[in-house]
Sequence to fold (496 residues):
Amino acid sequence: MDGHIEFTGIGKLFPGVQALADVSFRAESGQALALLGENGAGKSTLLKILSGDVRPDSGAISIDGRPQNFQSPLDALRAGVSVIYQERQLVPTGSVAENIFAGDLPGRFGIVDYGALRARTAEIVGKFGLNIDPDEPVGRLPIARQQMVEIMKAYRRDSAVIAFDEPTASLTDSEIAVLFRIIREMKANGKIIIYVSHRLSEIFQISDRIAVLKDGRLVTTFETSASNEDELIRAMVGRDLGDTYANLSRNDKFGDTLLEARELETEYIRKVSFALRRGEVLGFAGLVGAGRTELARAIFGADRVLSGSVIFNGEEVSFKSPKDAIAAGIALCPEDRKEQGLVLFRSIRDNIAMPVLQKLKRLLFLDRRADQKLAESAIERYGIRTTGADKLVAELSGGNQQKVILGRWTSEKIETKLLILDEPTKGIDVGTKAEVYQIICDFAKQGIGVIFISSELTEVINVADRILVMKGGRITGELARAEATEENVLALAMSE
Fold:
C-alpha cells in the first residue's frame, strides 16, 4: 500500500479568474484526503483536471511516480482515476444496470448478456445493502438513489484513485452510513480517496488528512486527528464565524395567515394541512421520499392537485402551472438548481431577468440598461462573486449559483410574498451557508413567508421558527424551534 497521487504546481486561468495557482499536495493509498474550501476556492476545477475534463495551464499530476497527461476523461479512467461529481453523469432513460456498467456491458459480438448484467448489478447493489431494482430506469429514482447509482458506477470500475465531490449532498443519513462503509472498505483495499464536502462533521468521520484551498491556492494541510472545526473554518474563510445560528438576526413579529393548505392531496401527498404566517420561516423535515419536495411542487402549481384546497393571501387559488403561482407572488428555489432552477449557459443577467422580461421591455424590445441594473443590484445585494453580469452561470460556484436564484426572486421588479426554498444550502460552504441563513431571516423581516426544506436536521431546527415533519406524504408532527431536537424530529420522521 505504498501508492500515491501527487499534484505539483497546478495552475489554471479562466477568463478574468485565476482558478488555481501553484497547488501542490500528495494523497496516499489506504487513506482519504479531504479537500476543503469555500465555493470558488478551486476544488471543482482541481477535480476536473484530475478527471481529464479540464487541462491545467501549468503543473503536473503523477500516480505512483509516473507522470500523467490526461487529454480526456477516458485517459483518466484508463489510468485508474474515477471522479464522482455532484452533478450526476447518468442516462435517465437507461436502467440502473446499464448505467452502472456503461462502457463495459457484459456480452459477446456486440450482443449484451442481460442475464449477466442483472446478476452483476444485483451483486453490487447487494454490497451497498440497498433495495434498488437493476431494471429500473434511473430517471424514475429519487435524486438520492440516483447519487448512489453514480457511486456504484465508480465502485464497479475498481479504480485506484476515487474522488468524491459532495457525494452526500442528496443522501439520507442511512445512505451516508452505507457510503462511509464502502469508503472504509476502499481504504482497506489500498485505494486513494479524495473527498470534497462542506459538511465538516463528515470530514472528521472519514478523512485521514485535510488540504484547504482558498482563492485557488493551497493555504494549509492538517492531520485530521490533530485539527478541529474552528481551525478548519478559520483556514477556509479567514475569520471566525462564531455561533452561526445564535448570531442570526431573526424576525419575531409574525403577521396574519399568508398560506393555508387544507386536506391537500396529489399523487404523492395525502391530506396535508398546515398554515404559514407572514414573516414566518416554516421548516419541513423528513427522510428522502417523505413528500416535502412534492408538497412544494403542488403549492407552486408544478404538480396536479387531486383534492383539497390552497388559500393564499386570503383567496382560494388553483394554479394550473408555475406561471400562475409566480404571477400571484410565489417563488420556488428548487432542490436541483442546475436542472430545474437555472439556465446554465446563459448569463447572470439573463437568469435574473427571466421572470420579469415583460416589465423590462421598452416598446417591443428588451431594455438592456434596465436588466443590467437589475443584475448588478442582485450581485451587490447578495455578494455574488463574478467578473460581471454577463458571466455564464455555469462558470459560477454552487453557492454563487444559489445566490443568483435568490436574486431572481427578490428583485425590485417582482413582488414575492411566499418564498419556497428546497435544499437551498446543498453543496455550499460554511461561510456562504451563514450568509444564506441570514438572507432567509431578512426575507422574513420583510413580511415574506418562507417555506424552508432541508435534509440537514441541524439547520432546519436552528433556522426555522416552526418545523413540520413529514413521512410517506403526510405530516406526522409539528415542533416549535425551542422544543425541536434531532432526536424528536427523527422520531416523527420514522413514526409508524
Q: What stands out?
A: Residues 173-188 form the longest helix (16 residues).
